Amino acid sequence: MTDSCVDTEAQDLERRGWNVTAYQTRPVNNPLNAVTVVVKGGGDLATGVVHRLHRAGMRVVVNELPQPLVIRRPASVASAIFEGETEVEGIRARLVEPGQVEETWRGGAIPVLIDPEARIVHRCRPQVLVDAIMAKRNTGTGIEDASLVIALGPGFTARVDCHAVIETNRGHHLGRVILTGSAEPNMGTPATVDGHTEERVLRAPCPGVFHGYCRIGERVSAGQTVAHVNGSAVHAQIGGVLRGLLADGVATTTGMKVGDIDPRGRVEYCFTISDKARAVGGGVLEAILCLLWK
Questions:
Q1: Contacts of 129 (CB under 8 A, 6+ apart)
Q2: How would you classify residue 265: left for phi > 0, otherwise alpha for psi between -120 and 50, otherwise beta?
C-alpha cells in the first residue's frame, strides 16, 4: 500500500490536534496494564479485538496456524506469520517464539505465535482468553481455560463453554455481549455489500496451492482472472476493489474462500479495521471491564 491510499492513524490524530506520542504510549498507572489476554486467531475480526485491547493497555498475545487462512491480510495481525512483522492502524505485530513474548510487550508490539494447539494458554496463564478463530464451531476452548473466557460468534454457549459470547452477525445486535445462550446461527451467506452477496466472494475451484495474480487494493473487472489454484483460474464475478486475497502458497480445498471483492471501490477499506471488527472488539472490551473482576 502506498501512503496515498489511506492516511495513517497518526496523521489523522495530528490533524485533530491530538498528542500522538501520548496516545500511543500506555499510561504507567493504568490498571489494565496488568491484564494478560490470549487471542486465538489473528484474522480481521480478531484484529479488531487486539487493537481495542492493546490500546486500552492490556498485554495481548496472539496464536495462529503456520499458514493462516486470512483473507484481509493488510488489516490482520496474522500477516506477521508471513511477513515477520506487520502494522495495522498504528499497532505493530511481530512473529516471535514463546520465550520472546515479554520482550515483545516491552517493545510495545503484539507478539504473534505459531501455536495451533494454543500451548501459550498454559504457559502464560492469562486472565482472559478470547476465541476469535471464527470457525463457527468450538475447536477446543473450555470455560476453565482462563478466569474469563470470551468467544466470538456461533458455536459457543455462554455459561457452558465460555463466560460470554460476542455477536458477530451484522445487524441490530452486532457486538452485543451475550451472558446466557449463543450468538445467532451462521446464515451461510456473505453479508450484502452494495447489493452483492455470494458473487463478491472468490472461491477455490479445486484443491491445491493458491497463487494470486493481483494485489489487495487493486481494482478488478468482472471476468478478470485474479488468481489460480493448481493452474485452475479464479475469476472475479463482479467489478470493484480487491479487498482481500489469500497468501501465496497456502493450501486450499474446493469451494474455500480465497478472496473478497468490494464493489464500493474504496481502496482505504482494504487497509483499515472494519466497522464490524471495531464493534466486535468493543464488545470484548466491554465484557472484560464488566466481568473480569466479578
A1: 37, 38, 40, 121, 141, 145, 146, 148, 149, 150
A2: left
Spatial separation of the C-alpha atoms in residues 69 and 291, rounded to whole Å: 31
Summary mean pLDDT of the chain: 91
Other CB atoms within 10 Å distance of the CB of residue 236: 21
Distance (Å, whole) CA 93 – CA 246: 19
pLDDT of residue 16: 57
The residue type at 165? V
How far, in Å, CA of 134 to CA of 167, rounded?
A: 11
Q: 132 with 39: CB under 8 angstroms? A: yes
| Residues 46-104 pLDDT 10s | 999 999 999 999 999 999 999 999 999 999 999 999 999 999 999 999 999 999 999 99
Hey, how many other C-beta atoms are within 10 angstroms of the C-beta on 79?
Answer: 26
Q: Quick one: pLDDT at residue 273?
A: 97
CA distance 192 to 170: 10
Q: What is the DSSP string of the chain?
A: --TTTS--HHHHHHHTT--HHHHHSPPTT-GGGG-EEEEE--SHHHHHHHHHHHHHT-EEEEEE-SS---SSGGG-GGGHHHHSEEEETTEEEEE--GGGHHHHHHTT-EEEEE-TT-THHHHH--SEEEE----SS-SS--TTSSSEEEEESTT--BTTTBSEEE--SSSTTTTPEESSB-PPPP-SSPPPBTTBSGGGEEE-SSSEEEEESS-TT-EE-TT-EEEEETTEEEE-SS-EEEEEEPPTT-EE-TT-EEEEEETT--GGGGGS--HHHHHHHHHHHHHHHHHTT-
